[in-house]
Every structure is written in C-alpha cells, then in structure tokens.
C-alpha cells in the first residue's frame, strides 16, 4: 500500500509556446486507429521536426476541437512531457450566411457540388445573432468518421444591408404565385350603365328614406 502523499498529482505547465503539427489525431476523431492518444510533432524556427508529444482530450484548450492529421497547432508542454493548451492554427475563410434553420445554419460556401456548408449555432462566437446575408469568418473542418465537412469557430463580421421582405408579403406573393395557373379576368373597357353613362348615375347615389320605394 502506497503511503499518503507519495503520488504527486500536481501537473504544472511550462510557459514556452511551441509550434507543431498533428501527426496522429485522437481515436475519437479517427476510430480506425488502435492508440487512443494523439501525437504532435514540434517544429522549430527552421521548419525542422524536433520532439513528439502525446496529447489527450484534456490537452485541448477547446475541448470541442476536432484536431486532424496535418493540422498546424500551438501548444505548451506539461511536467509529464505531454502537450497542453493545444490551439489549432487553421486558415480562416469568409462567406455569407445562406439560411438559419433553428439550431443549424448554412453558409454560401460549397464543399460538395450543390451543397451549402453546414454549421451548428453552438459554433458561433459570442452567441451572435445571425441572419441570411450576414458576412462571417470561419474555419473549415472535415470529420474523418464520415468525411463530411462543416464550419466551426464562426465569427460574425457584418450584417446584411439587404432589406428582407416581411413574412406576410412573402406569404401573399406565394399565394399569388400558386394562383397563376387559374382563370383570369381581363377588363377591355370600363363598364357603362344602361343609359350609356359610366357607373351609376347621381340619382342612384342620392339618399333615400327607409320604408319608401320609388319607381
């Protein structure tokens, strides 16, 4: 039996920040690999590969980050020789919002032909409210399990300047569009009364007393 205090559970993290590249992701990202831990290869200022550092889910600065093979990262090293505070350094892209549907959104950025890029609203920074036409900045990631791409770290840059049609107008236009195939009435001339005048004569517009009939 180990005596109390013989196991040092305290882990410290060094201040130096290293540049590196993911050479093996976590098994949760790539279920085909047998090893659970991911592996980062440090890169020095000359671009040469130096030491390797393993990492786990707790090593990520953002626990929801899906690090993939080839991703450039910055990290620190803890007292156990493992990578810590790992931050992905991915290229940032820009696009406009195509549509928002509840907790999901789509960007006007095609990864596959004819398909808009998907993102979850939980990926929007600062809980910003997004609408169609807003300009955003994002990072493109691909899930190695299913091969599907999505946007993460979505940052709102500016709002759309286009005035959207009110919902009631859209509904009215939709109704008119649906009725276009029905019969139409075309007026070729203004209707006239029996005496040739336009509409009703002034005599028909005069006030009449109730209960009294006239010929």
Automatic annotation (TrEMBL):
Domain CSD: 92-156
Domain SUZ-C: 164-204
Keyword Iron: no
Residue ranges of the region described as Disordered: 181-215
Pfam family, one: CSDE1
InterPro entries: CSD, CSDE1, CSP_DNA-bd, NA-bd_OB-fold, SUZ-C
Compartments where found: Cytoplasm
Record's keyword terms, sorted: Cytoplasm, Repeat, RNA-binding
PROSITE patterns for the chain: CSD_2 (PS51857), SUZ_C (PS51938)
Main location group: cytoplasm
GO CC, alphabetical: cytoplasm
Gene Ontology MF annotations: RNA binding
Family: Belongs to the UNR family.
UniProt protein name: Uncharacterized protein
């Amino acid at each position: 039996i180990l005596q109390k205090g013989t196991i040092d559970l305290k882990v410290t993290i060094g201040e130096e920040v290293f540049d590196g590249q993911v050479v093996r992701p976590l098994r949760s990202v790539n279920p085909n690999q047998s090893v659970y831990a991911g592996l980062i290869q440090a890169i020095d200022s000359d671009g040469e590969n130096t030491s390797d550092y393993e990492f786990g889910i707790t090593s990520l600065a953002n626990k929801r980050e899906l690090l993939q093979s080839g991703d450039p990262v910055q990290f620190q090293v803890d007292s156990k020789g493992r990578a810590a505070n790992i931050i992905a350094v991915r290229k940032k892209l820009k696009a406009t919002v195509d549509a928002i549907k509840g907790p999901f959104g789509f960007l006007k950025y095609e990864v596959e032909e004819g398909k808009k890029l998907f993102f979850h609203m939980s990926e929007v920074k600062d809980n910003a409210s997004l609408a169609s036409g807003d300009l955003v900045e994002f990072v493109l990631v691909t899930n190695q399990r299913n091969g599907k791409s999505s946007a993460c770290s979505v940052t709102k840059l500016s709002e759309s300047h286009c005035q959207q049609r009110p919902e009631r107008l859209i509904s009215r236009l939709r109704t008119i569009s649906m009725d276009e195939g029905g019969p139409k009435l075309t007026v070729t001339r203004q209707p006239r009364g029996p005496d040739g005048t336009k509409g009703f004569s002034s005599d028909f517009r005069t006030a009449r007393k109730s209960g009294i009939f006239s010929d």
